[in-house]
Amino acid sequence: MYNENVIFEQLKRECECALHNKSRCLAYEAYGAVRMAFELKAITSVQFNELADMIITNGINAVSAGLE
Length: 68
Fold this sequence. Notes:
This protein is mainly alpha-helical. Helix content is 75%, strand content 0%.
């Protein structure tokens, strides 16, 4: 459980960094890392949904995010 939280927090920081830097490329990389962690069962489905919502819904698909 401890590693799961560490991985989740690291991925969350990567997603926040990508959005803060307004980088579409970093956002896609962050999503790939999130997806891989989920596929390897390093994070739960709830954690995956939270991160995916952050990076996809509020980032890549949101015009207001201003990703370039």
